[in-house]
Design a protein that fits this description.
Helix content is 69%, strand content 0%. It has 205 residues and is mostly helical. The longest helix has 29 residues.
Length: 205
């Protein structure tokens, strides 16, 4: 069972890489791609984090090694980020212009992978309970990302999502930033709580 799960995670990580690569190639075929803009989206970064973590986890298991506490913490953070992507996209951004133009890649990155990551975390118990004292770590990356986006929006005018556009007013932007930060903490708390539930008991190696 452990090897099959590792194989599934490896296959999912490869599929995600294909979707991101196809999106990059498709974008480049129509216009010059600024990599800082293309990879500046929370969606892209969160998917990349998830795919790397899934691949490392799969390789660790296939090599017969134990998942370290750091790797399990990284999985918890990656799951939190991609779940937030799924929630934010499907509640605020779905149907708006821009974003991923390839429909299959768009659905994979915004819907399929968030659902897969959530189910993987909930149903497969190959992780130890995450310590509540480490919950704050999940906020480091989103805060850093928001800070960079705000600086770029105030300098070169690029923003990844319309609700972070300073032209709408920094008051509105602040409300969204606080809401996203709070939502991330709530999602992380749920992920941390679920880590104590192991319906499908699979060894962590």
């Amino acid at each position: 069972m452990t090897k099959y799960i590792a194989g599934l995670r490896l296959a999912v990580s490869v599929l995600g890489v294909i979707a991101i690569t196809a999106t990059f190639v498709d974008t480049a075929s129509r216009d010059t791609v600024n990599p800082f803009n293309f990879f500046g989206f929370f969606t892209m970064q969160s998917n990349i984090i998830l795919l790397v973590v899934l691949k490392v986890t799969a390789i660790t298991v296939l090599a017969g090694r134990i998942q370290s506490p750091t790797l399990q913490l990284a999985r918890g953070c990656a799951t939190t980020y991609i779940v937030v992507v799924g929630i934010v996209y499907n509640t605020l951004l779905a149907g708006l212009p821009g974003g991923v133009t390839l429909e299959w890649a768009n659905n994979l990155l915004h819907v399929v992978l968030p659902i897969y990551a959530a189910l993987d975390w909930v149903l497969i118990g190959d992780r130890s309970p995450l310590p509540w004292t480490r919950l704050w770590i999940v906020t480091v990356y989103p805060i850093a990302w928001i800070a960079v986006v705000l600086v770029r929006g105030a300098t070169d005018g690029w923003v990844p999502y319309p609700f972070l556009d300073p032209l709408t007013g920094y008051g509105a932007v602040a409300v969204y930033c606080v809401s996203i930060a709070a939502g991330t903490v709530v999602a992380a708390a749920v992920i941390w709580l679920v880590s104590r539930w192991r319906p499908l008991r699979v060894p962590a190696s």
